[in-house]
Amino acid sequence: MSGELEAFLEYISVTRALSKKSVEAYRGDLTSIENELGKPLIGLETSSMLSLLCKYTNKRTLNRKLSSINAFFDFCYKNQFNAEQKKLKFSKIPKLLPQFLSFIQIQNAIKMIDRSSWLGQRDYALILFLYATGARISEALSLARDDIEGEWLHIRHAKGEKERIVPIAKVAKVAIDTYLASLEKDHNHVWCNYKGDKLSRISAYKITQKYLGVSPHVLRHSYATSLISGGADLRVVQELLGHASLLTTQIYTHIQRQDLKETVDVYHPMAKEE
């Protein structure tokens, strides 16, 4: 591994405080290119890199590689390792709206949960929690009891190690309190499996799949969609979701525009004229 690449990985790990998974993703992308071409990444010609990257037919995979390369080159230029500021263009990908569920869909699904056992109460509380807070599933599973302060949630293990505080809807807070009170033993972690150990990501996925037919992340999309459709300010939603860039949050404005168009199509008299 070249010295410049080592410096870059230290920078994103220490200074930018990216998560271990993010750092490892950058490391994997960039070292694989250096190893395959047998040269330090900073000295590679653009044509050589593009020849190597053309084997990636999946545009999302290709763009992830390009993002890693561009981040490295930007770091090298700003630290004067490279006199030329290189930037490779991303491959165009059609924009897809995130999958989401309506409040009524979620309500109808959780009515089917048998809450006579603590496991049923857990499933009910977890689904409400994810929809009420917009938390990532990794953030939810890292939750400790003292991270819930009244009707506020302190997310300490956020993506990029950026903490944030978000409110919890009262109905979700009641469901969580009921679930925690039903546990036979006190655990520092909030979400438990049937053995009392910390709930795994796979188990959480199975819970949302069982009742909603979707992954836990769809509830995060549903949370954001509900807020935007209800008229929430985009920057407030950005803060609640913990997005570093407003551009990431702006995907939900497409949903809002679609709602506006459907409203006009239904209610405006000229929309019905041919």
Features:
13 helices, DNA polymerase, domain 1, 274 residues, hpI Integrase, Chain A, three-stranded antiparallel beta sheet, globular, mainly alpha, 3 strands
Write a structural description.
The protein is mainly alpha-helical and 274 residues long. The protein has 2 domains: 3-78, Orthogonal Bundle (DNA polymerase, domain 1), CATH 1.10.150; 117-261, Intergrase catalytic core (hpI Integrase, Chain A), CATH 1.10.443.10. Helices cover 56% and strands 4% of the residues. It contains 13 helices and 3 strands, in the order H-H-H-H-H-H-H-E-E-E-H-H-H-H-H-H. It has helices at 3-15, 20-37, 46-53, 59-78, 103-110, 118-133, 137-141, 170-182, 201-212, 216-229, 234-241, 246-249, 253-267; strands spanning 148-149, 152-155, 164-167. The longest helix is centred in the first third of the chain and has 20 residues, at 59-78.
Strand content: under 5%
**CATH fold group of the largest domain:** hpI Integrase, Chain A
Largest beta sheet: strand ordering: 1-2-3
Q: Any idea what the radius of gyration is?
A: 23 Å
How many DSSP E strands? Answer: 3
Second rung of CATH, namely the architecture of the largest domain = Orthogonal Bundle
Specify the overall morphology: globular
CATH class categorisation of the largest domain: Mainly Alpha
Number of separate domains: 2
Sheet of most strands:
3 strands, antiparallel
